[in-house]
Write a structure and sequence with these properties.
The complex is a heterodimer of chains A (122) and B (382). Chain A is of the alpha+beta class. Helix content of chain A is 19%, strand content 38%. Chain A has a single domain, classed as RNA polymerase II/Efflux pump adaptor protein, barrel-sandwich hybrid domain (OB fold (Dihydrolipoamide Acetyltransferase, E2P)), CATH 2.40.50. Chain A is globular and about 35 Å long. Among the domains of chain B are: 137 residues, Gyrase A, domain 2, CATH 3.30.1360.120; 81 residues, Aminomethyltransferase beta-barrel domains (Elongation Factor Tu (Ef-tu), domain 3, Beta Barrel). In chain B, strand 18 and strand 19 form a beta hairpin. In chain B, helix 3 crosses helix 8. The chains are: A alpha+beta (122), B alpha+beta (382). At the A-B interface, strand 4 and strand 6 of A face helix 3 of B. Chain B: Belongs to the GcvT family.
Chain lengths: 122, 382
């Protein structure tokens, strides 16, 4: 059973057990515009919650993607390196950025569900 | 986000309503509420301009008529030469030239276009500088010229390989014009000033139209399936690929025309030994740069990797250690090249084509090469 939560910085996390798959929301990609470059964290890196973990660059500007929870990077989506535009076409599925082992489940408490995120971006 | 008060204080061009109706994403720019992109997005808008025709609203820019009190346009030209290092006297009627207002230190106050309309000069200046430019003109040229700010006109740029065929349907003279020809022409029956110029590296036109007729003309142009509306985002990536300076970024009051690699814009008549050498603000320093070289220079930069190198990135001679030797002044992704492009200032000793440099991006030094500009070959109809 997967639960999807959202941060106020427009990351989504699909949580499956103690692993979260992280990406940026469809709302975020629509604000960024055409994505032309993505920089991903190294597998094995330990991230602290709210630490800059990845970078997404549109034609216009560079934006950080923050770690939504503390934990270790287990896997990154190399498809984004080859095809950054996936972020525009499929932000909340194929264009996931990295998978992280959730170090402290209590950190999930501060995140939003879909209804709360919709209200946040309305 | 801007506070409501700030949004309300933004000025609107005569095409504002059209931008909103076309789905333009509006942002504050030089005091105006302007479209940064339309629903197609920056990439598509950029590539459409390179392959077909793009319509840009550049009405925020300043349009100024310099009317000689004597009635002789040459007197207005001689007067303007007191403020710019260009040969204005030699601009033939119906022709236009790129120029810069300079300051006493040889820096650039603004860059502008100057056209000779036969009985007066027509100037187009940057939006953010237009009030200061007008005051500068009044303070220095009022004895010789009437300075007439044409604030009741809009300015539309039509750029790209199909710009000529599109405009030819509305303006009989368009196909006969060459790059930098300029003059009063009827477009769709409206009293316009048309120049064959722009700032994208593409062939194209700029059309000054009375504000009251601007929406009608823009809509008529957009009815042509070859034309797409283009926002500020693609305007910036197009001019960057064309290697053209953006005022306040690549040139400013701290850069001389020689440092900015704009020597081509200063004619021999105004340089040392020329018929009307000097006589403009900062001439001593600018002519010394012409005669002896400047210690730094604007260069084009191509990144070897995929990461865009943006404005403000520091430049280094080596992959590690050492002090920064320069800075990127414009940079981003070039959609036509499908690669990052940038320009910046480096010591002249490091400005030769092919020089390897490094830009610091997020703590890493990314390799770049000094490259020839324009990055994309221009297609002006000379």
């Amino acid at each position: 059973m997967t639960t999807t939560l959202y941060t106020s910085d427009h990351e989504w996390l699909a949580i499956d057990g103690d692993v979260a798959t992280v990406g940026i929301t469809d709302y975020a990609q629509s604000q960024l515009g055409d994505v032309v470059f993505v920089e991903l964290p190294k597998v094995g890196r330990s991230l602290k919650k709210a630490e800059a973990a990845a970078v997404v660059e549109s034609v216009k500007a560079a934006s950080d993607v923050y770690a939504p929870v503390t934990g270790e990077v287990l896997e990154v989506n190399d498809a984004l390196i080859a095809e950054p535009a996936l972020v525009n076409s499929d932000a909340q599925s194929k264009a996931w950025f990295f998978k992280i082992r959730i170090g402290d489940k209590s950190e999930l408490g501060g995140l939003m569900d879909e209804a709360a995120y919709k209200a946040h971006t309305a | 986000m801007l506070a409501r008060d700030d949004q309300d204080s933004l000025k609107k061009t005569p095409l504002h309503g059209l931008h909103v109706s076309l789905g333009g994403k509006m942002v504050p720019f030089a005091g105006y509420d302007m479209p940064v992109q339309y629903p197609a997005g920056v990439l598509k808008e950029h590539l459409h301009t390179r392959s077909s025709a793009g319509l840009f609203d550049v009405s925020h820019m300043g349009q100024i008529a310099l009317r000689p009190k004597s009635g002789k346009v040459e007197d207005a030209a001689r007067a303007l030469e007191r403020l710019v290092p260009q040969d204005i006297v030699a601009i033939a009627p119906g022709r236009q030239r790129y120029a810069q207002f300079t300051n006493e230190n040889g820096g650039i106050l603004d860059d502008l276009m100057v056209a000779n309309f036969g009985d007066h000069l027509f100037l187009v200046v940057n939006a953010a500088c237009k009030d200061a430019d007008e005051a500068h003109l009044r303070a220095n040229l009022a004895d010789d010229c009437v300075i007439d700010s044409l604030s009741d006109r809009a300015l539309i740029a039509l750029q790209g390989p199909k710009a000529e065929s599109v405009l030819a349907k509305l303006c009989a003279e368009a196909p006969t014009m060459k790059f930098m020809d300029a003059g009063p022409h009827k477009v769709a029956g409206l009293a316009c000033f048309v120049s064959r110029s722009g700032y994208t590296g593409e062939d194209g036109f700029e059309i000054s139209v009375p504000a009251a007729d601007a929406q009608r003309l823009a809509k008529t142009l957009l009815e042509n399936p070859d034309v797409m509306p283009i926002g500020l985002g693609a305007r910036d990536s197009l001019r960057l690929e064309a290697g053209l300076c953006l005022y306040g970024h690549d040139i400013d009051t701290e850069t001389t025309p020689v440092e900015a690699a704009l020597e081509w814009s200063v004619q021999k008549s105004r340089r040392t030994g020329g018929a009307r050498a000097g006589g403009f603000p900062g001439a001593e320093k600018i002519l010394a740069h012409f005669d002896n070289g400047a210690s730094r220079r604007r260069v084009g930069l191509l990144a070897l990797g995929r990461a865009p190198v943006r404005e403000g990135a520091l430049l280094f001679a080596n992959s590690e250690g050492g002090e920064a030797i320069g800075k990127v002044t414009s940079g981003g992704f070039g959609p036509s090249l499908n690669a990052p492009v940038a320009m910046g200032y480096v010591p002249t000793s490091h400005s030769a084509l092919g020089t390897n440099l490094f830009a610091e991006v997020r703590g890493q030094r990314l390799p770049l090469t000094v490259a020839a500009m324009p990055f994309v070959k221009n297609t002006y109809k000379r």
